[in-house]
């Protein structure tokens, strides 16, 4: 049983496609099919159901999946253990929430590159659901989310920090001078919000719906940092993580509104898959985030 064959099996299982696995691995589709046929012959059982263009694991394939991941991880650990001590290298794939990316990433990347200059970083922004799906299919090594507390038995929680979400208005806005603001007052304001499906946007919508109210923003945008700048320019109110707006609040260009009926706290969390070997480059990234 060859490691490259096991690696091919894992790619097909994750991508649900022989052709996509072949492209990602740089093999011909016939070579991939031959490797799977050889593996199935060695194990004396079919590993995949092939119905039309759909590829799914059989029950035996699903059972073998856990062992295959463990075999490959053990081989990587053995290889690393036999190497002489050297600087951390390789690739690190991280998916992040947009607001986490825009606020924490610049400083984090600077420190990480200084610590691990030979590591190639592959970064992408995604929704929390997309990140967890990618983590489960081994398309990424780490997922850095901003959401309600996520408890996933398949994932290891490496970092868990509370983050407040707040309603902000341009400095000098009429509501900024009030001791408290009601949801009814918010409903009558112009808003710029993140897209539906983002954790804290959904939390705001749920607060409003509980009172039979709704906010219909005139602009929806995926970038929380850009929304902050637009609010500073007087274009409306928004609902954003405190860490996004803290500099503008300190500078006096934004005002935080006190809305007792809408107090929302999310968790900034960093995950990796429990079956994933914790590589040196992953350990270095986790350590920096924990600091």
TrEMBL record:
* PROSITE patterns in UniProt: HTH_LYSR
Supply the alphabetized keyword list: DNA-binding, Transcription, Transcription regulation
Q: Which residues form the HTH lysR-type domain?
A: 1-58
Q: Which Gene3D superfamilies match?
A: 3.40.190.290, Winged helix-like DNA-binding domain superfamily/Winged helix DNA-binding domain
Q: Which Pfam families match?
A: HTH_1, LysR_substrate
CDD domains the UniProt entry points to: PBP2_LTTR_substrate
Which family is it part of?
Belongs to the LysR transcriptional regulatory family.
**Protein name as it appears in the record:** LysR family transcriptional regulator
């Amino acid at each position: 049983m060859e490691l490259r064959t096991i690696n091919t099996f894992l790619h097909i299982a994750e991508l649900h496609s022989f052709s996509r696995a072949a492209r990602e691995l740089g093999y011909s589709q016939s070579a991939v099919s031959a490797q799977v046929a050889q593996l199935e012959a060695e194990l004396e059982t079919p590993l995949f159901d092939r119905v039309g263009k759909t590829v799914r694991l059989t029950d035996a394939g699903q059972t073998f999946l856990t062992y295959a991941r463990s075999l490959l991880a053990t081989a990587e650990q053995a290889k690393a253990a036999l190497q002489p001590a050297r600087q951390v290298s390789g690739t690190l794939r991280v998916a992040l929430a947009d607001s986490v990316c825009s606020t924490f990433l610049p400083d984090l990347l600077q420190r990480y590159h200084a610590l691990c200059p030979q590591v190639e970083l592959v970064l992408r922004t995604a929704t929390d659901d997309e990140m967890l799906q990618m983590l489960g299919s081994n398309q990424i090594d780490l997922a850095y989310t901003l959401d309600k507390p996520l408890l996933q038995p398949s994932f290891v929680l490496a970092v868990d920090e509370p983050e407040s979400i707040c309603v902000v208005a341009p400095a000098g806005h009429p509501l900024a001078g009030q001791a408290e603001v009601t949801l009814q007052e918010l409903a009558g304001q112009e808003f710029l919000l993140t897209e539906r499906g983002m954790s804290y946007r959904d939390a705001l919508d749920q607060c409003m719906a509980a009172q039979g109210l709704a906010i219909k923003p005139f602009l929806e945008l995926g970038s929380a940092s850009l929304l902050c700048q637009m609010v500073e320019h007087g274009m409306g109110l928004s609902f954003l993580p405190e860490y996004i707006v803290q500099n503008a609040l300190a500078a006096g260009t934004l005002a935080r509104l006190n809305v007792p009926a809408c107090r929302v706290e999310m968790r900034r969390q960093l995950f990796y898959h429990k079956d994933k070997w914790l590589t040196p480059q992953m350990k270095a990234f986790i350590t920096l985030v924990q600091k």
